[in-house]
Amino acid sequence: MSQRPAPSPLLLFLLMIPGVSSADWGVSYSPSHICALKDSSVIMNCTYTYPTGHQIMKVFWTKGDVKEDGEYPDLSEDPEYSQRLQYLGDKQQICTIRLSHVTLEDSRMYYFRFITYNPDGKWIGHSGVTLTVTDLQVKSPERVTEGDSVRLTCRSSCTLTYRATFIWYRNSQPLTAGIFENQLILGKVNREDTGRYRCGVDGHSYRSAAVQLNIRYPPENPVISISPSGEIKKGDSVTLICSSDSNPPAEIRWFKGGTFVGSGRIFNISKISSDDSGEYKCRSTYEHGEKYSDAVTLNIMHPPRDISVLINGSGEIVSGDSVTLICSSDSNPPAEISWFKENESSAVGSGQSFSALQSGRFYCQAHNQHGSQRSDAVTVTVHHGAGRNVIVIAATSGGLFIIIIIIIIILFIM
Q1: Is the model's pLDDT at 10 over the cut of 70?
Q2: Contact residues for 348 (Cβ-Cβ < 8 A; gap 6+)
Q3: Alpha-carbon span 321 to 390, nearest angstrom
């Protein structure tokens, strides 16, 4: 109901004139309560009446706060409203306005005020229009696991005055399925449904703040990748990466054989050596269990090392027999073996073993694409004594060991 001001003596005089009453003064709002979306435009429909014989001097809308001079402030003169307020009425009976780009701070009561040229002919529609401006918020479950059905709700602080068609976005891409009024229903979600969700109203640019929907899912069998992927040489730096997609991320631990060697998704080995060769696995541990990767083998390439010559043979050696020498070395890939007689440039044999048929100093040389190394020389001496006595002596040039094999064969004792 519109309220009239306290009657002045002139107004009382007018009321005594036939055909003039307080019912001739009034302001009507439709609707009287408006719920509007933030950043939208609002139409406040309004009509007003006044007695015949009055002429309108000024019309305006106000927030109702009275100034020091007793008059109401005009919203069109308020810097916060002047650029957004458009009067759509006239000076006869229409007082409708449009307020654009409404903000949450615009939520309040608004009133229409008109003034006639008669000093006592002023009126304000005290019933006013209640404007509530709302934003949008997405309500989502706190915990979602792969396979769950999920319901997201687009909420506002009041029920929008106009019928709203809600729209939904995932990572800024519009969604078309599963929308029921202000809800988005996702059936049996999977990890691809993870994303930032927003809601809005069709025909309006405003969007809600984004809500991150995290879909929890267990890890699949982890997989190891090696960098660099090619041949690994002694001294290289090698990185093992364990890929185990899960949400939340699984705890990663590394094992060489059955021995724990590190943790974290990335395992680095700097200046790798042959001691680092072996099988590696990673294990992803999740709240509901754990899974192991397949094993990967680090095969460290290196040149020959620890090369030595062994003498194979025991028992009787007679003139014309041979002495077998064996070359031992550690290399990866396996080395090619060549045999040399000291002070001779050409190889006298190849392969891991060599049969020495004569006296001399012999050594082996091991070679692969990463380098080569030679052994110490071994001395082989065959002595022919009287009767068919044969003495074979083999020794390393370093004197590390002496093997003396004395075979005395007495065919005849005279």
Answers
A1: no
A2: 339, 340, 341, 354, 362
A3: 10
Please tell me the distance from the alpha carbon of residue 48 to that of residue 95, in angstroms, as a whole number: 7
Residue 65, token pair as written in the block: 């706060």
Residues with Cβ < 8 Å from 17, sequence gap 6 or more? none
What domains are defined for the chain? 9-133 (2.60.40.10), 137-216 (2.60.40.10), 223-298 (2.60.40.10), 302-407 (2.60.40.10)
Going along 125-182, which residue ranges are E strands? 129-134, 137-139, 144-145, 150-155, 166-170, 173-175, 179-180
Residue 397 clears pLDDT 50, i.e. is over it: no
Distances in Å between the Cα of 14 and the Cα atoms of 53, 91, 93, 143, 353 are 11, 22, 21, 71, 137
Instruction: Quote the pLDDT of residue 313.
Output: 59
| pLDDT digits 0-9 by tens, 83-104 | 999 999 998 999 999 999 999 9
Position 228 pLDDT exceeds 90: no
Q: What are phi and psi of 168, to 5 degrees?
A: -130, 150
* pLDDT tens digits for range 320-376: 667 888 999 888 889 999 999 988 888 888 888 888 878 888 999 999 988 899 999
Tell me whether strands 251-256 and 347-350 are parallel, antiparallel or unpaired.
Answer: unpaired
Kind and range of the H or E element at 117? none
CA–CA separation, 48 vs 124, rounded Å?
A: 10
For residue 399 the two structure tokens come to: 């004197």
- pTM beyond 0.85: the answer is no
Number of H helices, E strands in the chain: 1, 38
pLDDT for the residue numbered 247: 85
> Residue 336 is encoded by which pair of tokens?
């090619």
Distances (CA, A) of 339 to 284, 347, 359: 52, 5, 14
Task: Give CA–CA dist 328/75, Å, rounded.
Answer: 101
Q: Does residue 309 contact residue 373 with C-beta atoms inside 8 Å?
A: no
The two three-digit tokens of residue 293, written as one number: 């990767």
Distance CA 401, CA 393 (A): 11
Q: How far apart are CA 354 and CA 338, in angstroms?
A: 9
| CB atoms near residue 325 (< 10 Å) | 24
